[in-house]
Specification:
Layout lengths: L8 H11 L29 E2 L7 E2 L3 H16 L14 H9 L11 E6 L1 H7 L12 H22 L6 E6 L16 H16 L4 E6 L6 H4 L5 E5 H10 L2 H8 L3 E7 L11 H17 L4 H6 L1 E5 L8 H23 L2
Parallel strand pairs: 3-4, 4-5, 5-6, 6-7, 7-8
Antiparallel strand pairs: 1-2
Helix pairs in contact: 1-3, 2-5, 4-5, 5-6, 8-10, 10-12
Length: 341
């Protein structure tokens, strides 16, 4: 996962490499400042955005200005002029520390390095216009947001590519769940899928692996139909929703998709962390259920990653350390009991 508690970017980078040595992410540090929160990072170049207060930015563009802003961003994407969407040092201390410090940790066992950015729907719900309405209510504004996110993700990926490992970039969509109804904003699921697919396709054209994080409840058929390579969901809370109708997941895996099982909660459950053996049993039960539904055993094993349920950035350092320890034990159990059979 991308976020980490604490204020020290070097320490967060070290923790990322220790916790996720195969695919470490640059660490988001939301406790440092408002601008380091997921839904605020990297927005300094977004046309029409101002900061009347430190807590809440304001987006204000007239219809003609929206059209002009979209054309500007499209031209910059076409011409590979990406600097507008670059991180500022005060927005992402963990990103710059990751680029600087990773040469100390990178090795042959490193499969890839991971970046992340907020997805268009969650950003569209986080930003408001001068009337206090979320930008998700305006298709014209959302086209600008999606183009800007594409610009930023491409900039981020090119910087990470300097580490000479494959790059995977995730879009984080915590607001996309069964509670979200696009019709409430004058939209359809086709609009949502179109924005996401456009960003993923632009990244894949440059050889960048793509991922989608959705920590809300399913069903996730809208996600399994996207051209994304890795899907991460909260399997600790919502495994049963996946098992109720797994056909979307089956097709996703058959197309070459990978599922990242978020099984380790980033908080205490009834005063303590679950036993890793209990978490492994949750996955093994689901695994057996999916095999009965016609999933290919080796394919499912080969296309499974494991992670925490959601970001660690809002936890205490002690809880984050316990989650990391629990995850390591869970993966060891999985490798010993499943992947090596």
């Amino acid at each position: 996962m991308g976020s980490m508690p604490g204020l020290d970017p070097q320490a967060a980078v070290q923790t990322q490499w220790r916790a996720f040595p195969e695919i470490p992410a640059w660490p988001q540090l939301p406790k440092r400042s408002e601008k380091e929160r997921m839904n605020r990072q990297g927005l300094s170049g977004l046309p029409g955005l101002s900061w009347p207060s430190a807590e809440q930015p304001l987006f204000a563009l007239s219809p003609p200005d929206l059209t002009e802003a979209l054309e500007i961003l499209k031209n910059e994407n076409r011409e590979n002029r990406l600097e507008r969407a670059a991180f500022k040092p005060e927005e992402a201390a963990g990103f710059f520390a990751f680029l600087k410090e990773s040469s100390r940790y990178i090795s042959a066992s490193t499969l890839a390095v991971k970046g992340q950015a907020i997805g268009p729907v969650s950003l569209g719900l986080s930003l408001t216009d001068e009337n206090g309405k979320p930008l998700l209510s305006s298709k014209a504004a959302m086209r600008v947001l999606a183009e800007y996110i594409t610009l930023h993700c491409r900039w981020q990926a090119r910087k990470l590519a300097a580490l000479h490992k494959p790059v995977v970039v995730f879009l984080d969509e915590p607001f996309l769940s069964s509670k979200f109804q696009p019709e409430d904003y004058g939209l359809g699921w086709g609009d949502v899928q179109g924005w996401l697919a456009g960003i993923f396709t632009a990244l894949q054209e440059e050889g960048i692996l793509t991922g989608l994080h959705s920590c809300g409840s399913g069903p996730w058929d809208w996600a399994f139909g996207l051209p994304v390579e890795i899907f991460h969901f909260d399997g600790f809370q919502y495994m049963n929703l996946l098992l109720e109708n797994p056909n979307g997941l089956k097709e996703f895996i058959r197309r070459g998709g990978t599922v990242s099982w978020g099984l380790v909660p980033t908080g205490m459950v009834k005063g303590s962390f679950p036993d890793p053996a209990e978490l492994f049993q949750i996955w093994e039960d689901a695994f057996g259920n999916l095999l009965k539904r016609g999933f290919d055993r080796e394919e499912l094993i080969g296309r499974s990653f494991f992670s925490t349920t959601c970001g660690l950035g809002n936890c205490s350092p002690g809880v984050a350390e316990e989650a990391i320890r629990c995850l390591g034990t869970l993966v060891s159990l999985w490798r010993a009991n499943i992947s090596l059979r």
